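Researcher: Good morning. I'm working through a list of sequences from a screen, and I'd like to move beyond sequence-only analysis. For each chain I'm collecting a predicted structure so we can compare shapes side by side. This is the next one on the list. No need for commentary yet; just the structure.
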Amino acid sequence: MKPSTPWLASIFFSLIAPHAMASEASDAKAYDLAFKTIRQSRLLTTKQLDCVFLMIDDNDGKVATVDVREKHNKKCGGAPETAPQMFSLNIDLKTGAVQWDGNDDMEMRPVPRQLGDADTWQPLGQGWSRYNNSRFGTIAEIPALFKSVDLPPENGDGRAFNADDGARLWVSASYGPYVVTDTFAAYKVWLAKETKPERATYKAEGKGWLVLSGIDGSTVVYTKVIEGCGAGHEVHIEYPVPKRAFYDPIVTRLSRTLRCQTPRE
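Model: Good morning. Structure tokens for this chain:
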């Protein structure tokens, strides 16, 4: 398909897969709205945009579904014969309203105006998403096996997640380090003291972070807390001892990706 305007050509050249499902004008509008939504709502970073392509899954002239898939090549990595789907966009071609399934429950919901306007999940591919808390700016990468337990709490301090095998995960933040104690260093001492001994048989720490882990009965417990953006940010996970080999790599990624970004006012 050939774009109808020169400025669309550069977008189509790298992002759009061939298809033959609806009229050229209707498809062009769908691609245009999809690309603008991804950029304006920051659904993908600039780097990620270089390694994805858009493909229309359905278009009846009124509503179009556009899939966003990973582009695998020498530059982007991955197996060239595969193109995993990151998320889909449902686009009302008349009103321009856009929904996506890039959230924790993977159901179609309105696209947030901009990353940071609300708690968001940014798809990363291969079953992982980047969770961003809008109040404290907490960020962590979370696997799809964890589903959000409920709506976000009224105080907006984070989320709780459950997995089908009984594992539980919490990603949260608070001003605790400066309410319970005066400094983050003092808070680490307080937190270690307040944690049940069986849940803190392993301890590691550095400037601005603390890790406590242990086994409580038949459950592995892991907590990491970091300082940043004027608050304390925490990831806490509990999972069955028999599934330790499965969850240990997940814990490593959760821990490594825990950080914060100062929320926009």
